[in-house]
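Example 9 (inverse folding). The structure is encoded as follows.
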């Protein structure tokens, strides 16, 4: 008869019933004979976890070695007791559904369940149960397949795939931001240069208007720097700096960022080694972290800015794609706000991800921080502050004696005056595919007495040099151009009998320029959008080297 019609020896839902068969409390092998002994040896040695349970009492009557190994129970601890009594079922609802199914059918195959080992660890498995008759007893023959490790592996693989997708999205958005910033820089350059060229002779309202134009262009340049930082594509001006000095310089501005109810404190370690970073970008990182902390705690609370040179705090989790290596100076911002849930720690550094309202945040602050720090070959760590809030720690690389000071390529001698005739008798070839940038660059040089030749690409530049109508004393060229890069143009010029010095101009980062074969130790780059002063400085310096 079906299992549902079999007489029960106890009330439904119980695991030990009055009058139940009690042979499971003794040795199950008793009375099986030689064939039974052989079966029992094979059963116990089977490589798959298996158990036999009395359908009436629901007590284990036998379990093999693998079942004991997987559940953590010795055979003597299982026999005579039920899975429910031992607390093996991870979810009692799964047990109820299984028993209901067994009331109708005598086989349940490949059902998902969770079970708890003797040490309390919760595991995931697939199980199968077949009703069998042995020695006149109805038993459940159970087979268990532990898939916990496989599940964790699949979850880890899914997490890595999602992380890769996030990195791809970040890279795509970064490429877009870098391209947009580069184009904006080309648009800002004529505004900035023309305003500066016109200022010396302007008076009254015209001078005021030109100064406003110049300041607007400079603010626009700072905006493009942020875009390039977000896309890991800004041209960094790294040099040895005291991180404490950066913090102290930014302190007055940082105090204006927080409301009166927020206590902003500074804890700066003494005798810090110098970091090799761009000070402006480092200040941007600090500002973004303080703003993020302020938004997290609201109108009152505590924010602490600290520096140290030991190790990141215990419990800090590294963010980003690179493994932390080498020695660093650490800059840290901690608050006493609600903290960052573990499941959101990686997401908060994705572009446009924010837990704030649209009015309170754009989701670009922390992604910009990660972009700036990783471009410096630094690291970002996230953890919990001593007050239970968020703690973000920035590891900045130490300065080494053999590192090149990139600020030299963009040095700006404030207030330096140049003679209008400084370029007399000198011919400069300007090579630039953007018409407006080429025109304004040439205008600056002509304004100061240089003879200027113009070429829209590398091939046209070589034709002018080879024509020899005017000897060229210096070439000013963009690096990234269609057809022939500025570096390739330099190599072609160097192969000619009368080689001339070359000044490179670009709005891209060293990382991006590396894709075009640029060696940061062999050339200097004038960053767009440049001022007339910076252009004249580097031209004069290159000519003086000849």
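The amino acid assigned to each position is listed next.
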């Amino acid at each position: 008869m079906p299992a549902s019609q079999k007489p029960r020896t106890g009330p439904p839902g119980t695991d030990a019933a009055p009058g139940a068969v009690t042979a499971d409390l003794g040795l199950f092998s008793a009375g099986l004979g030689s064939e039974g002994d052989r079966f029992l040896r094979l059963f116990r040695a089977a490589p798959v976890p298996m158990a036999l349970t009395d359908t009436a009492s629901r007590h284990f009557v036998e379990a093999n070695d693998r079942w004991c190994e997987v559940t953590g129970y010795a055979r003597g601890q299982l026999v005579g007791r039920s899975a429910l009594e031992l607390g093996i079922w991870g979810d009692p609802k799964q047990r109820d559904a299984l028993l209901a199914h067994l009331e109708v059918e005598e086989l349940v195959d490949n059902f998902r369940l969770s079970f708890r080992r003797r040490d309390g660890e919760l595991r995931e498995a697939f199980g199968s149960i077949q009703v069998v008759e042995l020695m006149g007893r109805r038993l459940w023959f159970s087979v268990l397949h532990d898939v916990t490790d496989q599940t964790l592996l699949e979850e880890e693989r899914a997490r890595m795939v999602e992380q890769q997708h996030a990195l791809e999205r970040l890279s795509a958005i970064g490429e877009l931001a870098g391209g947009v910033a580069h184009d904006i820089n080309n648009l800002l350059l004529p505004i900035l240069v023309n305003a500066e060229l016109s200022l010396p002779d302007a008076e009254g309202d015209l001078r005021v208007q030109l100064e406003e134009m110049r300041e607007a262009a400079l603010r626009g340049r700072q905006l493009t720097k942020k875009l390039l930082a977000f896309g890991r594509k800004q041209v960094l001006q790294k040099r040895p700096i005291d991180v404490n000095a950066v913090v102290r310089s930014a302190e007055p501005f940082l105090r204006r960022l927080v409301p009166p109810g927020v206590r902003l404190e500074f804890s700066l370690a003494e005798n810090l080694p110098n970091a090799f970073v761009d000070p402006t970008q480092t200040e941007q990182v600090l500002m973004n972290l303080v703003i993020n902390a302020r938004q997290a705690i609201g109108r009152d609370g505590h924010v602490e800015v600290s520096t140290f040179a030991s190790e990141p705090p215990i419990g800090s989790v590294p963010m980003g794609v690179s493994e932390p290596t080498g020695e660093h100076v650490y800059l840290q911002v901690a608050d006493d706000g609600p903290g960052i849930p573990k499941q959101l720690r990686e997401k908060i550094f994705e572009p446009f991800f924010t837990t704030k309202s649209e009015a309170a945040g754009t989701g670009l602050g922390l992604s910009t921080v990660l972009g700036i720090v990783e471009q410096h070959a630094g690291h970002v760590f996230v953890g919990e502050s001593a007050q239970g809030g968020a703690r973000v720690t920035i590891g900045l690389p130490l300065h080494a004696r053999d590192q090149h000071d990139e600020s030299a390529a963009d040095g700006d001698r404030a207030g330096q005056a140049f003679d209008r005739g400084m370029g007399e008798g000198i011919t400069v070839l300007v090579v630039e595919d953007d018409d407006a940038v080429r025109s304004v660059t040439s205008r600056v040089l002509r304004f100061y007495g240089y003879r200027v030749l113009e070429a829209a690409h590398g091939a046209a530049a070589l034709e002018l040099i080879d024509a020899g109508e005017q000897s060229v004393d210096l070439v000013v060229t963009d690096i990234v151009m269609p057809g022939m890069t500025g570096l390739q143009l330099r190599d072609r010029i160097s192969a000619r009998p009368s080689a001339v010095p070359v000044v490179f101009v670009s709005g891209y980062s060293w990382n991006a320029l590396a894709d075009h074969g640029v060696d940061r130790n062999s050339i200097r780059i004038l960053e767009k959008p440049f001022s007339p002063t910076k252009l004249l400085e580097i031209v004069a310096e290159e000519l003086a080297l000849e």
